[in-house]
Specification:
The protein has twelve helices and two strands, in the order αβααβααααααααα. It has 312 residues and is an all-alpha fold. A two-stranded antiparallel sheet has the order 1-2. Helix 2 runs antiparallel to helix 3 and helix 3 runs antiparallel to helix 4. The longest helix has 34 residues. It starts with a helix and ends with a helix.
């Protein structure tokens, strides 16, 4: 089907790669394919190590497993459209498939934010109240946390996602990225989008922003507790347990802030900058989290070294 016909078809959207750089797509596909391969491999390895090592069956690593699974799902939800565009297989996506992808992308972002908050609570409890750690973070309570995180993400976003199905999209159906985002679909709609805009803003404030504030508060208390420790060696040891989580928080929130700033204030920037920031938002956390936890978490690092030595 020609692109011009697809644009006026109300049930088809056109995905955008890097505008004006179409002839470089075969070259772009190599690093993007490698990144997706590393995302899948890295997160699967982390999940395998946690599953097979009994000493890692602790609350901290249960949350890490959920983080790795979330990152894995994020890769799975976008790989077919991103690589489909770069490989020249297909730039078209149906409206229903686009709305479904929007649901998964935003839902998984909410899950990742919730998991990072749960991990911050884990570090706060381990540092500030170590004697009650095992009684506060029991297996049943960890499961309750996980279910709450999943339910919050799955249900909170449904009202705006359902409304997307009934919008009239009268503007050219050309999306800004090689995947579907809520704000991108709103830009194409001619229906009344005030509820979606206000609800989405309130949702960001009540989930991502609130989670970030609570994570920051938890680290204020952690820092206060650590600085009260007399021994310099003990202070470093306590902070070392938080380094990987701090890196994961930065890896998640910095791309979100960057993408928001570009969408809000970067109207004059090249469309390729918007596409690049969108891809960083989608791919950077799933790529970096396994590396961070493999390098910074002693238990996982030692287990992976032992596992690799047995394979050689």
């Amino acid at each position: 089907m020609p692109a011009s016909a697809s644009i006026i078809n109300t049930s088809i959207f056109i995905l955008t790669g890097f505008p004006g750089l179409d002839h470089y797509y075969p070259w772009f596909s190599i690093p993007f394919s490698s990144i997706y391969a590393l995302v899948f491999l890295g997160n699967c390895v982390v999940l395998h190590v946690i599953r097979t090592e009994p000493s890692l069956h602790q609350p901290m690593f249960h949350f890490l497993a959920m983080l790795a699974l979330t990152d894995l799902c994020m890769g799975l939800s976008t790989v077919h459209t991103v690589l489909g565009v770069l490989w020249g297989l297909n730039q078209e996506v149906s409206r229903d498939a686009c709305i479904a992808q929007t649901y998964f992308i935003h839902g998984l972002s909410s899950i990742e934010s919730g998991v990072l908050l749960a991990m911050a609570f884990d570090r706060f409890t381990a540092t500030c109240n170590p004697l009650r750690y095992t009684s506060l973070l029991t297996n049943s309570r960890v499961i309750h946390f996980m279910v709450a995180i999943l339910m919050r993400a799955a249900l909170s976003i449904l009202p705006v996602i359902i409304r997307l199905k009934f919008f009239h999209y009268c503007r050219p159906h050309i999306l800004s990225h090689s995947f579907c985002l809520h704000q991108d679909l709103l830009r194409l709609a001619c229906s009344d989008i005030r509820f979606n805009s206000l609800y989405a803003l309130a949702l960001v404030i009540c989930t991502l922003l609130l989670d970030a504030v609570l994570i920051l508060i938890s680290y204020v208390f952690i820092l206060h507790t650590v600085l009260a420790i007399a021994s310099h060696k003990e202070r470093l040891k306590s902070l070392q347990t938080c380094v990987s989580h701090i890196c994961a928080v930065l890896v998640f929130y910095i791309p979100i802030i960057g993408l928001t700033m570009v969408h809000r204030f970067g109207k004059h920037l090249s469309p390729s900058v918007h596409v690049l920031m969108g891809n960083i938002y989608i791919l950077f956390p799933p790529l970096m989290n396994p590396i961070i936890y493999s390098v910074k978490t002693q238990q996982i690092r030692s287990r992976m070294k032992k596992w690799c030595s047995l394979k050689m």
